[in-house]
Specification:
The chain is α+β, with helices and mostly antiparallel strands. It has helices at about 1-15, 25-40, 60-70, 95-105, 110-115, 130-135, 145-155, 160-185, 190-205, 265-285, 295-305, 380-385; strands at about 45-50, 75-80, 85-90, 120-125, 140-145, 210, 215-220, 240-245, 245-250, 250, 255-260, 340-345, 345-350, 355, 360-365, 370. Helix 8 runs antiparallel to helix 9 and helix 10 runs antiparallel to helix 11. The structure holds manganese (II) ion. Manganese (II) ion binds near residues 254 and 319.
């Protein structure tokens, strides 16, 4: 018995590094499955883990991860919401020692794994067909991912305390990356040098990857919203838009600052920068329960319009962040506490090679909001970063 227990602990220790860098308590995933089951009462649901691809870093399908916290290929979740109470089954492929020599040890079905995954029943995928057949007898329908996407998106829009902690960690890493970016930006430096410096901070601080391709756009490219080629040599007098976000334990930050390449904004750059900054502050001030993304956009737009730059503000002001950087869900839904959004107005004037965007990540609180990305954004603060 003792021997068996030691074997289980060894297996657990050996496999722990294969799971996500940081997870939520297993009960959190379970409560999501319960909430989803309540929404699809009377039906059964089958969700499959993302397949493994050769020489591609494994990334679990986001909804599957949200419901299970499990990030290995081959798994299947069966949620039978036709029985009362709902029943859940988790299936794993039998371990394959030959394959594991290529891609490392995996979890297989069995009692030890039930403790690690938080599922009461972890079966072999070879039992899936018969289990599904039994479960679907009493079900109105057997749903797949497409059928429940909007239900899961609804759940994903409000974050648990641990999700907010993971997002805060992603933001903190991203702010270190912005420090590194500001240190690297100089006349004559390449945009990709800035990208390298900031992504080095991502990796060395435990981020899995950039949450989206890092944007380092100088000169004319400051006006291209999703420029990510990053091959231009920066010139004195340019501004450079740095729009980046670390992905930490699955959660992506999204923070933008616009820096002066020579360390000091020109009078014209200051003028436009201040308009964007004031628009951003006006939008952030609107963040509270009950408000909507459209309220933020109206606040930012009305300031920019009052200064005559309406036609140069060509994108939305805000989106949710989470397991995806443009996170899922209804964008017209009124805010609730623990939603996390970006606030990011911008003005882009291609004929002047001048683009300014300022973006922060903000969590909705019970009576207002809290800005997670506490990083210099006043003109004098940004210029101070460059005094070296
Ligand atoms: Mn964004």
């Amino acid at each position: 018995m003792v021997k068996k227990h030691i074997a289980a602990v060894c297996l657990f220790l050996a496999l722990t590094p294969l799971l996500a860098t940081e997870k939520e308590p297993l009960g959190e995933y379970k409560s999501r499955r319960e909430r989803l089951a309540a929404r699809i009462k009377g039906n059964a649901l089958v969700l499959r883990a993302a397949p493994e691809q050769e020489l591609v870093k494994y990334q679990q399908e986001r909804n599957f991860y949200y419901l299970t916290g499990f990030d290995q290929p081959g798994a299947i979740l069966l949620l039978d919401a036709s029985s009362d109470p709902p029943q859940e089954f988790f299936f794993l492929p039998e371990r394959n020692s030959a394959a594991e020599r290529w891609t490392g040890p995996k979890l297989g079905p069995g009692a030890d794994v039930e403790k690690i995954t938080g599922f009461a029943r972890v079966l072999s995928t070879s039992d899936f067909d018969t289990t599904l057949k039994r479960a679907s007898e009493g079900a109105k329908a057997v749903y797949g991912l497409k059928d429940v996407e909007s239900d899961i998106a609804y759940l994903r829009q409000t974050k648990s305390p641990t999700e907010i902690a993971l997002l805060e960690k992603a933001v903190q890493i991203t702010l270190k990356a912005h420090q590194a970016a500001a240190r690297t930006i100089a006349p004559g430096a390449m945009e990709y040098e800035v990208q390298a410096a900031l992504e080095y901070e991502f990796t060395r601080n435990g981020a899995e990857r950039p949450g989206y391709p890092s944007i380092v756009g100088s000169g004319l490219f400051s006006t291209i919203l999703h420029y990510n080629v990053n091959t231009r040599r920066m010139q004195a007098g340019d501004v450079v838009v740095v729009d980046v976000g670390a992905e930490y334990s699955g959660y992506s930050a999204d923070v933008t600052r616009t820096y002066p390449v020579s360390g000091k904004y020109s009078p014209r750059q200051r003028e436009i920068y201040q308009i964007v900054l004031d628009a951003q502050k006006a939008a952030i001030a609107k963040v509270k329960p009950g408000a909507r993304i459209s309220d933020l956009h109206n606040a930012a737009m009305s300031h920019i319009r009052s200064k005559g730059y309406e036609k140069y503000f060509i994108h939305g002001t805000s989106h949710h962040i989470g397991l995806e950087v443009h996170d899922v869900g209804d964008t017209s839904r009124p805010f609730e506490p623990n939603m996390v959004i970006t606030v990011e107005p911008g003005i882009y004037i291609p004929e002047e090679q001048l683009g300014i965007r300022i973006e922060d990540d903000v969590v909705v609180t019970t009576n207002g909001h809290r800005v997670l990305s506490d990083f210099p954004k006043e003109i004098s603060e940004i210029e101070s970063l460059f005094k070296r």
